Amino acid sequence: MNPIGGVGRATIALITEIGRVSLFLSEALRSLVRPPFFWALIGQQMLRIGYFSLPVVGFTAFFTGGALALQIFIGGDRVGAEALVPRIVVLGITRELGPVIASLMVAGRVAAAIAAEIGTMRVTEQIDALTTLSTNPFNYLVAPRIIAAVLTMPLLVFIADIVGVFGGYVVATLDLGFNNAAYLQNTYDFLRTNDVVSGLVKAAVFGFIIAALGCYQGFNSKGGAQGVGKATTDAVVTASILILAANFVMTSLFFR
Prior knowledge:
Oligomer: single chain
Number of helices: 9
Shape: elongated
Distance between the termini: 45 Å
Structural class: mainly alpha
Helix content: over 70%
Strand content: under 5%
């Protein structure tokens, strides 16, 4: 009977966790529209999440675009379709790789930082102190981070799109022998507004996932330094998995 009991315990634990996340997200959503609003904290979080993530997002997007162009050229050479390189690069970057790669990089950096910061506040009872001082922790801690992530992620992804396409352009023109003007013209002719907009919508959703899960794991951390470390790891892992799952769902809705 032990295996059956293990399955039951795992199922109950999963349902309990889903309920906790649902209650947390419902309260977090209410805090987004419930005053007071801490505008200074929102601006501070926008700098932390957006501005300070630009280097890692930029370098990742550039090399991803370059590698994508190289792989498409090598694969297209087998069927005589090398000319499709600029079209597939711009499509792959704007629709999929730009939003997903940028969000995964930000999740590794920001979700961990949010979970560690709020988790430390939890285990040192600073969140309880906020409640004692009649300050709603969701308004003060959660709402600024979610608002900042939702606003800055589309900007980061837009920059990642530009840098990623530029990386493909550099590799194609300097290494693969493409004509500069022809490559740019093919890219411009093939790109559609919907390709870019869909990626930016994905980015906003991914930003919500990153900030919300970072806050959730931090709020529910316990057990001192070890608990904070576990919350940090769980925040990155769960955010990354949900980003990939949400990307699949939104891709199916946008382009089916």
